[in-house]
Specification:
By secondary structure, this protein is an alpha+beta fold. It has two domains: 135 residues, no CATH class; 167 residues, no CATH class. 24% of the residues lie in helices and 28% in strands. The strands form seven sheets. It has a four-stranded antiparallel β-sheet. The longest helix has 17 residues. It is elongated and about 75 Å long. It starts with a strand and ends with a helix.
Length: 311
Amino acid sequence: MKSLLIRFNLIMIIFTISIVTSNLFVYASYDLNKSNFTHLIDPNTNKVITTIIPQPYHLELDILYFKKQVQWIVQNLANGTSTKSGFNQKMILDRIDPTTGEIIKGRPKVTVAEDELVEEILENSFNGGSIYVPLKVITSGYKEEDAPFLNEIVLASYTTKFNPNNLGRSKNIELSSASINNVIVGSGDIFSFNDIVGPRDIASGYQEAPEFLQGKIVIGIGGGICQTSSTLFNAIDQLDVEILERHRHTRDIGYVPKGRDATVSFGGLDFVFQNTLGIPILIKTYYGNGFITVQITTSKENEYILKNLEN
C-alpha cells in the first residue's frame, strides 16, 4: 500500500492511505510524534493503514462533526472506495469435489465492527494510540468431518424438463446446474445463485439461446439458466428456509407451474435464500437428456436433529 506525502507550511505529515479528509488534521505546530495521533492497523499485516490526527477545536467544540468524519473513514475502510477494496467480504460457500470427495474451500464472511471501531477512535482521540481494525469473521455453519455424510438423506427434490434438441439452451442448463452441484449450505449460511454460478458469458462456456427480456423472447448468452434457478427454488422451497430474494418472469415460462419460477440475471436479479433449518444441507444436481433434477440432502444424524427441531 503506497504512502501519501502531504506538505504544508510548518509540518510534514505522512499518511499511509489517502481516504482521510484534510479538515480532520492540524497543519501547524504538530510533529509526527504528537501524542494524539491515532494509528489504525490492519490485523492481517500488522501495518498502519491510516493515521487520524484531530484538530483540537473539533474535539473541544464540535465533537459531533468529528464523529461523522470518523464514521466516514470507517465506512470506507469497511466497504472500500472506487480505487481501493475494503475489509468487508461476502462468504463464498464450500463445495465437495464430485471426483475426489475433497472439500473445495470458499472463504468466510468478514465484516468490520464499525460501531466498535468508531468508539475506539473517539476514545483515543485525546491521547492517541494504535488500534487494530476489529473484524468479525463468520465461517460456514457445518463441520468438515460431517461433509462426507451430507448426501445420505434426500430432504427435498424437484425435476423440470426441457427440449434437448435446443443445444445452446441445454448446454447453459448443464453448466449452471454443475455450478451449484455439491455446494454445502451450512446452518445460517446464505446462498446466492449469482455468486455461486458467476458470470454467464462465452468465456465461461455459455452459449446463445432464447431467453425472456422485458416480456419478449430474445436470443442472449446464457438463455435457459433461469430453469436451473427455478428448479432449485422449487426444491428448496419445500423446506423451512427463508427466501431472501426471488423474482418472477413477466410471463409464464412453462417448465414450472405459474408463479413458481425464479428469474436471475448476473449483476441484477438474483435468487437468494438463507438456511434457517438449524442443520447443514447439500445441493445435488442431476442433468440428463431433457431434464434437470435438484435434490437437497443431509446426513442421517442431521435428519434426526431436524425432526426433533420441528417437533
